[in-house]
Task: structure prediction
Amino acid sequence: MNWFIIILFIISVSLYLVTRYYLLKRELALVNIENFENESLLTSSNKLLKYHGVEIKYLDIEQAKKLINKDGEYLQGMNQANLSARGCISIDELYSKYKNAFDEINDDEKNRIDTFLLKLLIDIKENGNSNTYYNYVVKWLKTISIAKAKSWLESGMPHTLETTIVMDASWFIKPRKKTLLHEITHVHQRMYPTEFEDLYPLLGYYYNPVDIKGLENIYPLNRNNPDGMDKYWLWKNSTKSLTNYWWIGAIFKTAIPDSLTNVNLMALKLDKEIDSNSNENSNNIVNNTINNTIFYYLKQNPTPLKDFKEFTDFFGDNPNNYHPNEMTAKFAEWFLMENIKSNNVNNANNINNINNVNNNNYEGYTIYKNYFEKLLNTYYK
Result:
């Protein structure tokens, strides 16, 4: 009798446990189905916010118009050559034109960009070397806003105004990740310029805040760039002690250009002398600014940047290389591609990744990369 009770008890407990197991399994399956169904209802915008804390600020036309400041440095810095290249004869005319330079970003475009950003963040997080770069991109995506330019604005070139990235219309059809990080870098440069102060002299860039004798006819032909307004940067090979200083710029081909692309990227070799009123033996570079040195240009033939071998050997192949802000923004593109390299590097679609492997051969990029990684580890852990 006792054995019968024991056996019955064991059978009862076993039946209970089996029944409970299948009930829990069914409940879990229902939860998974519900979670799957809920997940499938999330838009890319919802997922960006839920999983990355990012909500992109898209500006409508009225919001974008407020970016155009008639009294700001950019418009007030327009001389006749720069106005002509933008199809205007006065700042007032340019102001009125630029106030109407934006288009609406429709819902399909917003969804396309949000989907693109969601994939980009996943790629960075899964394929990157560390979380610091992911944190960096997330931080700046939370900071920026995005506006859509009409096709003629700045000759179709993306640029930034304050913390807004003004993208060309084609970007909203087929987003370009390298363009995004390039422009994010410009916002970073504007918001925290001190984070680049120590980098620029390592790359050979020095600030000379005075007009250089002999460049009186060159300065007016220098193309204005909202992402690099300063025209007083000089470059000198930072790895060589005996080398020349060069002034570099995007110079209009004529005094009345009809396009912003009507420029030559040129390097002008400078001569120098030490100010007789200064101590010749003192360090003449303080806070990236050259002191106690008088530079002048003796009208030597300008050197096209593409033919400036010392420059291209140091920085690499970079068509957007006439200003330190642009150079480092291009390096930001290369750094991005290194951090999302696919395992299948032989795939033809990843040819950019393959090419970028060689960027580490350029000393300028190696300097930037080491500096930027230290910055990431300092501020974006």
Observations:
- The first helix runs from residue 2 to 41.
- The chain has two domains: 53-197+325-379, 207-316.
- The first strand starts at residue 57 and ends at 58.
- Residues 53-197+325-379 form one domain.
